[in-house]
Amino acid sequence: MSDGTSNAPWFQDPTRSKPFILFKTVDLDFVEECYCTALFPWSEQSLGTLWYGEKNTELQKGPWKQMISDWSGALAIGTLDSLLVIPLGASGSRKGLSVSVPKQEHNTHGKKTSVMAVGWALPFEAPLEPLIVFSAGSILYILNPVKGEVVGHLCGHGGPITSIVVHPTHPYLFCTTSRDFTTRIYDLTSSPQQGPDNPCWPPSKSPSLGGAPHGLQASEPEGMGIGRCVSVLCGGPSGGHEAAVLGAAFHPTHPLIATCGLDRAVKIWRFSTSSPNKFTREDKPLFSSSRIHKARVMSVSWLNTDTLVTHSAPALMRRCGRKDDIYYEDGTVTIFRWIGFDRFFPAGKKIGKVFRGCSSDYQESSSFTLISTSSLPQQTRHVHVTQTFTGDYILALSLPDSVRFYNLANFHPRVIAPNPPAPDPPERDIESEFQNVRLDDEEEEEDQPITTFFGKSPEPQRWEVLVPGGQGSVQACVLGFGGQLLVTLRKRRVYIWRETPR
Hints:
Elements lengths: L19 E8 L6 E6 L16 H4 L3 H9 L3 E5 L2 E5 L10 E4 L14 E7 L9 E6 L2 E6 L4 E6 L6 E6 L6 E6 L4 E5 L35 E3 L2 E6 L11 E6 L5 E6 L4 E5 L9 E3 L4 E3 L7 E6 L4 E6 L2 E4 L7 E4 L2 E7 L2 H4 L14 H4 L5 E8 L6 E6 L5 E6 L3 E6 L7 E2 L13 H6 L18 E2 L6 E5 L7 E7 L4 E6 L2 E7 L3
Parallel strand pairs: 14-18
Antiparallel strand pairs: 1-34, 2-3, 3-4, 4-5, 6-7, 7-8, 8-9, 9-13, 10-11, 11-12, 12-14, 15-16, 16-17, 17-19, 20-21, 21-24, 22-23, 24-25, 26-27, 27-28, 28-31, 29-30, 32-33, 33-34
């Protein structure tokens, strides 16, 4: 007989009011402030999907399992002027690590540099030695936590790096977004370029020397150690972002990458890594739209082959067009479908080498359908989307004192907004109308567009975890182990939570 308890995971059970319990607290009193964090993302089962299974035979008998045991649950935390690596695994074989940003890369004023973006990567040749990629300003660093040393640094961006995203199946590929309006894709299997290898700029037949402002390589060396920029997604009015790029996401199965930014635009680009020694430049995406959100788009994630989820910051709005009457409208979480996917990737056909859409694709595309739009609390500081072991996607919101969770499968479709009351018709002045009549006047019937106004979806089922002693200091959160582990980050303290036992 059933005892009334559910075997469903917490994100599928609306009766689980407390999905997590506090397991461990780590004090970081020796740092000034924490900014970002990344949890070691792989497990024993990940080997079947990484590199499309090419390393299965080589690693399946034991080395991979040992590496996972050593690094499972490890945290990389970006702080002011340093990067922290905190192992949380049960094996206890790894010790904590603190790496300072190399002094020679500081600016001329001697100010400390904040580590604002971090991610975990795996080199193809040495998959048992994970790497940590982090940024300080516009400089990129590659850390080997096994050896405890920085094994590479790369330059190229003309502005601060805003995010680092690692490819889900080829973890030696990663991309960086920046306030210089560009996105750069790097390959850890190559060494830095020591001279420009730019495409030709017609009518010249020699490599261009345009440099970083044009999305090209500079004339000075790219860096030292490992890693090379293999592609640049340029900004500018020809199709790229026209403001800072804030987030990106690799497609799980196709050579696509989605980006979002301060210009309210969401873009989808095609990239090629077939020739890692050849530098490519792209300035026209396959999709671009600034009509999905009203304010800057902070993050983007793929849910499946042609469906994405994005979130935006609160939007500054005017009431009735008055300049002196402004207010903030809630940010939104939007799920939408890219209709143009089947046009560029028809089923059963080989993917071509050249992709080029028309101007309606890369300027202001209409090839999308909004599925769901929900409001975000204006106090939201960070949004994290993760896939669970059941295939569900969980949205985690970092609020000043708590973390709120939503299962994206529970999001409601958009609803049609009620029609506003029709205004009273104005009184007609027959005399003035008669005076303005002319014999050659012809009445022109203006075509009025048929517009359907959609409102925001009702709030779905949610779960919430209160952070003890939060007091408005919660910075970010990240979910791991398929939704069974939660890490919340305060300015000088880290909380580790485990799923509540049934």
